[in-house]
From TrEMBL:
Keyword vocabulary terms for this entry: ATP-binding, Cell membrane, Membrane, Nucleotide-binding, Transport
A Pfam family recorded for this sequence: oligo_HPY
UniProt membrane topology term: Peripheral membrane protein
Listed name of the protein: ABC transporter ATP-binding protein
Ranges of residues in domain ABC transporter: 8-257
Database matches in NCBIfam families: oligo_HPY
UniProt family annotation: Belongs to the ABC transporter superfamily.
Primary location class: membrane
One MF annotation (Gene Ontology) recorded for this entry: ATP binding
Length: 345
């Protein structure tokens, strides 16, 4: 492949799932790419289509799903992969880590069997060699006494330890891309930080790219080179993470940033985003965010806004992007603004 071919390229991805005899759109024209070794964040509220994006990339959609667009891995069309090539893609090229580690282990199989199974089938490693490698991997993800852990069952491990086992299993095949779907959401804050640090270290040491999914914009900012904000199955904004936090281009991103609890601002009420998140299927005509957007005007409802390139900064799907640029983080007029001013003094 040429140097300009991204590791993963997702183009115009639209996905519909059958529900009660009709097709419901869950993703609409999703497009992005990930370069070798880089980390891209995918952020959005529940139901925005984050997991469906990952499942489409891994070709793990439910039966009856209708997909258009394309996904290329290292220049090859993932949707064209057949039997053996698809198996190799899932076993070697990409690895997945999920929010609920326990659901992806078999309660009656030991950790050691879970870890060595893929190595033995995919890499035809002899039993002893696979066990040795599994012990090394457990050690690498900071699990002490790995030989003992190999003999234990999933229920004997805490959520944090089990997620470390999942990271070890993901890294075992030396994939080039990790698809991490809210890997720390189910963990307490301290464990979350530990698991994140291990994931990042393994990623760096093995030179893997990562699609990191979270509903936590702050976490994405800390972890990802670039961040994509998804709403109702559509990409609403894409920017370098640091820039996105400083100068968001889309009102939805700004609303998410303003809804974060800020530890050092004691008295300010959180301006929660009014209304409820919508799915792609239920989204109104025009801008999907319009019913919750404090900047909405009639023209926002005229048609689905295009994803626009804003100078060098990034992309946003907002018809008012140019005129609103730089003002989105100013507090809305009203009681919240007055309280914020009060606290600032
Ligand atoms: N198996 C399924 N069949 C039909 N619809 C589904 C299925 N799984 C998820 N959905 C719907 O697809 C949309 C996106 O879901 P998902 O990607 O899981 O969101 P997220 O991960 O961002 O919370 C939601 O509206 C959800 O209800
Ligand atoms: S297009 Fe209009 S409604 Fe949609 S985000 Fe922009 S300002 Fe808000
Ligand atoms: Mg999800």
């Amino acid at each position: 492949m040429t140097a300009s071919t991204p590791l993963l390229r997702v183009e115009d991805l639209t996905v519909g799932l059958p529900v009660a005899g009709e097709l419901r759109t869950v993703l609409r024209d999703v497009a992005f790419e990930i370069e070798e070794g880089r980390t891209l964040g995918l952020v959005g509220e529940s139901g925005s289509g984050k997991s469906m994006t990952v499942r489409t990339i891994a070709r793990l959609l439910p039966d009856g799903a209708e997909v258009s667009g394309r996904v290329d891995f290292d220049g090859s069309a993932v949707f064209d992969l057949r039997a053996e090539a698809l198996r190799a893609y899932r076993a070697r090229d990409v690895a997945m880590i999920f929010q609920d580690a326990r659901a992806y282990t078999n309660p009656v199989r030991r950790i050691g069997d879970f870890l060595t199974e893929a190595m033995r089938t995919n890499e035809r490693m002899p039993k002893a060699a696979a066990a040795q490698r599994a012990v090394e991997l457990l050690d690498a993800v900071g699990i002490s006494d790995p030989e003992r852990r190999m003999r234990q069952y999933p229920h004997e491990l805490s959520g944090g330890l089990l997620q470390r086992v999942m990271i070890a299993a993901a890294v075992a095949a030396r994939p080039r891309l990790i698809l991490a779907d809210e890997p720390t959401t189910a963990l307490d804050v301290t464990t979350q930080a530990e698991v994140m640090a291990i994931l990042r270290r393994m990623q760096r040491e093995h030179g893997m790219a990562m699609l990191f999914i979270t509903h936590d914009l702050e976490l994405a900012g800390a972890v990802c080179d670039e961040t994509i904000v998804l709403y109702a199955g559509q990409v609403m904004e894409r920017q370098r993470s640091t820039q996105l936090h400083r100068d968001p281009l889309h009102p939805y991103t700004a609303a998410l940033l303003q809804a974060r609890p800020e530890i050092d601002r004691r008295a300010v009420r959180l301006p929660a985003i009014p209304g409820h998140p919508t799915t792609a299927y239920e989204a109104p005509d025009g801008c999907a965010f319009a019913p919750r957007c404090r900047f909405a005007q009639d023209r926002c409802r005229a048609g689905v806004p295009e994803l626009l390139q804003i100078g060098e900064a990034g992309q946003t799907r907002c018809v008012r992007a140019d005129e609103l640029r730089g003002t989105l983080l100013q507090p809305a007029p009203g009681p919240d603004a007055a309280i914020a001013e009060e606290v600032a003094r």
